[in-house]
């Protein structure tokens, strides 16, 4: 077992990291060993007269919320993993070099595999991505698009942000 290298963090170190990186100190009740409540992050607001450093800290907090709440959600729906904060340390421009797409897809696949176990009651992962995939590939679950948006520069998922009709689409049941 190595004695050198990055240290394992405990609750006190995570609280310090939140304070240094995001500009707020979470309550101990918001923290567990490896995650924090989403409400702890949403309580931290930016003000019109904020400094550039405060804006950067708030931006880091918002990106952390997106990572833990939308792209890599767990089954609780209310907690975010603390290790995403480590990825967002220092220059935020460096975070864009990571292969986020493959990580989101791998995390979703991992959660779908775990969800296939008979004892599993909930599935984590980016369900928006799964829904876009299902609507694009499985015609029997796809809603009818009332108004089509054709724009080559929009993300693929934006084609579903239009009025839709669910008439004739199965919902909440499997036949």
Catalogue the unreliable spans. Answer: none
- Tally of alpha and pi helices: 6
DSSP summary, beta strand count: 4
First and last CA, distance: 53 Å
Average of pLDDT: 85
Helix content estimate: 25-40%
Given helix and strand content, the structural type is: mainly alpha
N-to-C order of helices and strands: HEHHEHHHEE
Oligomer: single chain
Query: Radius of gyration, rounded?
Result: 20 Å
User: How would you sum up the major sheet?
Assistant: 2 strands, antiparallel
Cross-sheet strand order for the largest sheet: 1-2
Beta fraction? 5-15%
Shape: globular
Question: What does this protein structure show overall?
Answer:
- With 175 residues, the chain is mainly alpha-helical.
- It has a domain at 11-98.
- Helices cover 39% and strands 6% of the residues.
- The chain has 6 helices and 4 strands.
- It has helices spanning 11-22, 38-42, 52-71, 83-87, 100-115, 127-137; strands at 35-37, 79-81, 144-145, 164-165.
- Strands 1-2 form a two-stranded antiparallel sheet. A two-stranded antiparallel ribbon has the order 3-4.
- The protein is globular, with a radius of gyration of 20 Å.
- The protein starts with 10 loop residues before the first helix and ends in a 10-residue tail after the last strand.
- The mean pLDDT is 85.
- One of its GO terms (biological process) is meristem maintenance.
- InterPro entries: AminoTfrase-like_pln_mobile, MAIN-like.
- This is Aminotransferase-like plant mobile domain-containing protein.
- It holds the Pfam family PMD.
- Residues 37-160 form the Aminotransferase-like plant mobile domain.
């Amino acid at each position: 077992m190595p004695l050198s290298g990055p240290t394992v963090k405990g609750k006190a170190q995570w609280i310090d990291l939140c304070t240094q990186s995001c500009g707020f100190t979470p309550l101990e009740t918001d923290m567990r060993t490896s995650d924090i409540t989403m409400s702890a992050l949403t309580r931290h607001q930016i003000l019109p007269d904020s400094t550039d450093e405060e804006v950067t800290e708030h931006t880091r907090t918002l990106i952390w919320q997106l990572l833990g709440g939308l792209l890599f959600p767990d089954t609780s729906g209310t907690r975010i993993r603390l290790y995403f904060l480590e990825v967002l340390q220092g220059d935020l421009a460096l975070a864009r070099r990571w292969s986020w797409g493959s990580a989101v897809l791998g995390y979703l696949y991992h959660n779908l595999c775990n969800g296939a176990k008979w004892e599993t009651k909930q599935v984590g992962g980016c369900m928006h991505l799964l829904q876009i995939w299902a609507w694009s590939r499985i015609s029997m679950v796809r809603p009818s698009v009332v108004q089509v948006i054709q724009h080559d520069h929009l993300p693929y998922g934006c084609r579903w942000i239009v009025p839709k009709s669910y008439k004739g689409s199965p919902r909440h049941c499997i036949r």
